[in-house]
Write a structure and sequence with these properties.
With about 425 residues, the chain is of the alpha/beta class. The protein folds into two domains: about 25-115, Serine Threonine Protein Phosphatase 5, Tetratricopeptide repeat; about 195-410, Pectate Lyase C-like. It has helices at about 1-20, 20-45, 50-60, 65-75, 80-90, 100-115, 205-210; strands at about 195, 220, 225, 230-235, 240, 250, 260, 265-275, 285, 290-300, 305, 310, 315, 320-325, 330, 335-340, 345-350, 350-355, 360-365, 370, 375, 380-385, 395, 400, 405-410. The strands form three sheets. It has a 15-stranded parallel sheet that branches. Strands 4-7-9-13-16-19-22-25 form an eight-stranded parallel sheet. The chain has a two-stranded antiparallel sheet with strand order 11-12. α4 (about 65-75) runs antiparallel to α5.
């Protein structure tokens, strides 16, 4: 009898300990929804500051695309455009239920109207990369401004890690007023080459070089692994160059991104690898605006958060961004090797997209540009994916051993010559 009582007491105790787990999640969602609805009421009443604070509270409890969108709209209404655009970069209209997408698109366009993404001042020119574009190729065209979105087709979520890294540890920093470098004899305020090295360099780490070197500087990373303590946000025109993607690696385990560019540019990367390591949600490289030129780079290790649909891209290009990516590799990223979205225009040529969690190269929203002579191999879903109204030019690409198909098209799209990418054929009901 005593044993039965003891067993009953133990079971009761366990049930009391375990029971709150499910209600707690439900209560968080209910509280987040309540805060969201209060924020909507304040937004509709024109009290945008109060609305933004309520949406912030809601997102801290439970993130939803509705709250992200209205938070950005509230920030735009109060004149805080940098945060409004940054928040919009984590939102896509396709994240909303179908019935809400039309209204969501209108609200998104209103944010973009209130907050142009980039300055209209002409940027200083950055030195060209050593390699020239392939014969007959042209740079990407300019496009209207719109911040990055992370929409994806109905594809599976796969999370991949990256190898453990050991290397130098530069401090990440936002751009600051120019300061004295380690070599005061170098001229300031002109496009000059600066070396990054702990001993004997002009700057001890990349973050300081980006913050203090003049606009248009060529910043050189020597062979080895250069670690960023925090993700590095870049708004100034610079060219970061290494000794080759097999010799120079820039590493960070921070959240959201390793490198993010959101200036008017030009911003250039060449001859280096950029790697996200650790387990935090992140893309490897994000471009929100401006002109970019990437050559002979490797991007790897992006992590996807399935619940929030954030992160996972080797390269994410959106907004009004434009430019080119040449002779580069995008490998083992949890979502896409390259994702082009918003109204970005990107030329992608002679690249390899290998072993990514979903697609080698994907286009969404009103993105355009071209993909020419690329190789997409062993991606978990498709080699290439195009979701309308995106309309890139696709020619001369090769797709091998992608799990579901070579080319995913939601609508028919005119294709250029020379593609060896079998179309994905969805199964029809009953077959």
């Amino acid at each position: 009898m005593g044993d039965h009582r003891r067993s009953a007491t133990i079971l009761l105790t366990l049930s009391l300990v375990a029971a709150p787990a499910w209600p707690q999640t439900s209560n968080l969602q209910k509280a987040a929804r309540s805060l969201y609805e209060k924020g909507r009421a304040r937004y509709d009443a024109g009290d945008f500051q109060a609305a933004q604070e309520l949406f912030d509270q809601s997102l801290r409890l439970y993130a939803t695309p509705h709250a992200r969108l209205y938070r950005s709209a509230s920030l735009a209404r109060t004149g805080n455009c940098p945060l409004a655009l940054e928040g919009l970069a984590t939102f896509s209209v396709t994240d909303l239920p179908p019935k809400a997408r039309e209204k969501g698109s209108r609200l998104r366009e209103e944010v973009l109207r209130l907050c142009p993404a980039a300055s209209q001042e002409p940027p200083p020119q950055v030195p060209a990369a050593e390699a020239s574009p392939a014969p007959g190729s042209t740079a990407g065209e300019a496009a209207p401004k719109e911040p990055v979105s992370q929409a994806t087709p109905a594809l599976p979520e796969v999370t991949r890690g990256a190898p453990e890294a050991t290397a130098q540890g530069p401090e990440a920093a936002s751009p600051e007023p120019p300061a004295t470098s380690r070599n005061p004899g170098r001229p300031r305020g002109s496009a000059t080459e600066f070396q990054v090295a702990r001993d004997g360099g002009d700057f001890p780490d990349l973050a300081q070089a980006v913050a203090q070197a003049p606009d248009g500087a060529r910043i050189v990373l020597g062979p080895g692994r250069h670690r960023l303590e925090h993700p590095l946000r870049i708004t100034r025109p610079v060219h970061i160059v290494g000794a080759g993607p097999d010799q120079t690696t820039l590493v960070c385990d921070g959240e959201d991104f390793v490198l993010r560019f959101e200036g008017s540019g030009p911003f250039a990367l060449s001859d280096l690898a950029v790697e996200h390591d650790g387990v935090r949600t992140a893309a490897v490289i994000q471009v929100l605006s401006g002109e970019v030129d990437f050559r002979r780079i490797l991007a790897t290790g992006a992590i996807r958060h399935p619940a929030t649909r954030r992160g996972g891209q080797g390269l994410l290009v959106g907004g009004d961004a434009r430019g080119q990516v040449l002779s580069s590799v995008f490998r083992r990223n949890a979502l896409h090797g390259i994702q082009v979205t918003g109204k970005a225009v990107l030329r992608i040529e002679a690249c390899q997209c290998l072993e990514n969690g979903q697609t080698g190269i994907s286009w969404f929203e009103s993105a355009s540009g071209s993909a020419r002579d690329n190789v997409m191999e062993k991606n978990d879903r498709y080699g290439l994916a195009v979701v309308p109204p995106a309309r890139p030019q696709i020619s001369g690409n090769v797709c091998r051993e992608n799990r579901r198909g070579g080319l995913y098209l939601e609508e028919p799209l005119p294709l250029g010559p020379g593609n060896d990418c079998p179309l994905f054929q969805p199964r029809r009901p009953g077959k």
